[in-house]
Each structure stands twice: as C-alpha cells, then as structure tokens.
Amino acid sequence: MSTNSAQPGTPHVEPARGTTRRECLRHAAAGLGSLALAPLFLGPLSLGPLALAQLAGGVEAAAATGPGRESATQPRSPHAPPRVRNVIYLFMAGGPSQLELFGDKPALREYDGQSPPDSLTEGRRFAFLKPDAKLLGTRRKFARHGNCGMELSDLLPHHQRVVDKLCWLRGVRTDVFNHGPAKLFMNSGFQAPGRPSLGSWVSWGLGSESQELPAFVVLQSGPRGPRGGNTLWSSGFLPSTHQGVPLRGAGSPILDLANPPGISAADQADFIDAVTALNRQRATTVGDPEIQTRIAAYETAFRMQTSAPDLVNLQSETAETLALYGADPAQPSFARNCLLARRLVERGTRFIQLYHTDWDHHGGTGADLEKSLEQVCREVDQASAALVLDLERRGLLDETLVIWGGEFGRTPMGEQRETLGRDHHIDAFTLWLAGGGTRAGHIHGRTDDLGFRVVEGEVHVHDLHATVLHLLGFDHRRLTFRFQGRDFRLTDIRGELVREILA
Description:
By secondary structure, this protein is of the alpha/beta class. The protein is built from 13 helices and 17 strands. The chain has helices at about 20-35, 50-55, 100, 105-110, 120, 180-190, 200-205, 265-285, 290-310, 320-325, 335-345, 370-395, 460-470; strands at about 85-90, 140-145, 150-155, 165-175, 215-220, 245, 350-355, 400-405, 410-415, 420-425, 430-435, 440-445, 445, 455, 460, 480-485, 485-490. The strands form 5 sheets. Strands 1, 4, 5, 6, 7, 8, 11, 12 and 15 form a 9-stranded mixed β-sheet that branches. Helix 8 runs antiparallel to helix 9 and helix 11 runs parallel beside helix 12 (about 370-395). It is globular.
C-alpha cells in the first residue's frame, strides 16, 4: 500500500523535500552533533527545566508531521468503530511459568523425573536446557474457579475474584527464546531494535485524547529494569512524538519538573513563545517536519509541569481504593503503578505499559519456582485483579483493554540447579485479556498433556497484535508506514484476527 493513498485513520507521510548541497552538509553536521548528544538523553526523564529533548525523543528523529498537516497528537479516527479507546499492558518481564500458575498437568507430575519423548524435543532449541533435562511436575495446588472453570494455582488467590471477567489465552506462541529479543518481539513484532513498539503504533494511529500528558506512558517496578530498556517503548521509524515516556516510580515523576529558582511562570511562558516562534520560522525555511515534533515537545513539557504532579498525587484516592490495590502512596510498587494506570486512563492517556521484573525462574538463589515465584506473585496478584475491578466499577473497562503476560513461558522440563526452575519456552504459554470487545470468562486454546505444544487454539504474537489493533478499530494490514522504500506494519507479513475471543 502506498502511504500517499487515502486510508481512514492512517496518517500520511509528507514526501521529502529536495535540498541543496549546502543544506545537506549543514544538516549532516547537525546530525553528527545529535549522535554525540544522544547518550545524554537516555537516562532518567528530565525536564531540565522542561525535559524537551526527552519528550521529543532526542535532538533529531524520523519524519514527523509536515507543514499543513494536523498535529501528531491530535485524536484521529481508525478504520472502523473501535471497541476500546485505551490499552493497559501489564508486562511480566522474564516469562511467568504457566505450569505453576494457569493449568494443572497431572501427566507432568506422573512422569516427573523422566526424560521427555524425543518427538517433543527433537530439533528444538532452548536457552539453557541441557540435553538430559528431565520432566518436572509442578508442586503447586490447583483448583477450578468461576463459571468458566479456569484452573488457577494457589499462588493467585486474588485472580480467583476476576476469573470470569478475563479472556484466557492458553495457546500463545512466539518465535524468540532469549529475553531481550523476545521482549522486542512481543512489543514490536520483530526481534531486533529499530521497529516501533505496539504503544507507538497505537499513539501514531489514534493520536491522543490528552493535551496534558503523553499518549504513551511507561511505568516500571521490580528489582531492575527490563532487558531491552528503552528499545521496548521506542517509536522506531515513526515520528519521535509517539515513543513511550517513562515516569519515575518515586518522588517527582519527572526530574527537575519545577522551574529553577528565580524563573516565574510568566518568564517561562515568554521563553517558550520565543523558541516556538523561532522554530516555526525555521520550519518554514527548511521544511523539516521534525521541527513540528520539537514544538509539540515544548508545549507538552510546559503543560506537564502542572499535570504530572497532579497525576501522582494519590491523596484524592479513598482508603478503600488504596486497600483494594494494596498500594502505599508513598512507596513505589506494581500496585501503585496499577493505580496510576487507571488515573492515566481517566486523563486520556492512550497506551500505558507497566513492566514488572523478576519472573525469570531458572532455579538457584533468588530465581526458583518456590519462594521467588511466591514473592513475585504476591507483588502483582492483588493489584492486577484490583485494576480490572476498579476499571469496571468506574465504567472504564468497556473502553479499556487490559493485557497481562510475559515474553514467553517455561518448559515442562526442569533445570538441573540447586533449586527448582524451568527454562524459557516459546511453543505454549498463557496470557489474559480483559475489557471491551473480549469474551469475559472464555478459555481459548489447549496444550498437550505435558504442556509442551499447543494442540488447539494457537495464538501467535502477530495474531495477538492483529487482534489488539482490531479492538482499537484498525485493520492491521492497512496500518502501515513507508520507511526506506517499504511499507512496514506491526504484524510484519503475517497475523490473523483471533475471532473466537471477540465478544
């Protein structure tokens, strides 16, 4: 599809303007300077007084809005009436074990300690698993819950409350078995950096309903950041306006948010007006569409000086709501981030992604399927369920899609370490969805008796992405962006709509 052809909801890209040799040399010099400065903008988000470079995605970036085109963040209509308007993606970084959480496998316990059939492992690659690895039966207790009869382990007591409000995908499959590339694949549909993330595609396609906050916000919790870092919420070759903006988990959401001493609001407004006038003059002279992104960055940063502190001020939340999430307003946590995600949806933020780390349980000290898994489940179980309940009671669940899951699952075979653990598994794992357009209380997909392969209802990552875009009103085959002579899309060259999970 040519990007110049009219497609509902698909922003077009302005053709490149011809440049003289002198302009080319001048811009090349600026580009080299940008490369030198880029590392300065990869740390914590800082306004410095205004966080301008961070919010603009750096000094230079891919083509953005061109002269005469609407603002990059202006709300736009998708291809069809959407079922949802916002997405909250609860990303469990490291790969939760579906065999300890989301489905009992009696046969796995029966054959515990035995070698798996050669037919299962022949030709398969694993991250760390040795050839003589034995099957490992789960030690957790399972029971069926709700009208749907979904099996949950004793590690997820709060999920039992919402089991009939969720749509369960038990046959998810991916292509990549190492953490960094697998996270990129789950977020961008490709295993190497450079492609736009799901949140960036959504921001670019729909624009923003908030003039006070970014359209795509990232919140992090857990003992460390997710492998892949800011490449996971990169805008890739899309306009830099649409990259994810990470907010800090404690204190001010953005460093240096307040004006420096001696600088009044009027002084700052005058400064921004002057810089905007200079930028507009420059845009008229050189026709560089990225200048429009820079102008928008100044304006958004200015507004965030008021909106960001209000966002993280939880004093207006009732004691009952804080108890529902298990959130301490003064402490950074996954629970606090879930509550902030709801507040961001209320304020019009289009895509919110929460990363919670420490799900990589190979066995060994601090990474086992017993104490370590119990700890991380306690950190996310209550708040995950509370988010669904809170959105529902406020009338927001029908227009919000919630996604819960990691980059892959865990193998039926155990790892030979000092404590129980499992390796990365890409052929069959579980995630859940909740919200408008999905079938509540529906279980989709089934794996074999050992939990190794999907035997019914397989959902590839590209199928998941196609379905998410469909719920937002997009045909994934038509949401494209021309870059280096090719029309790119989130689902690359594949992806099928999973109609069975749609309400």
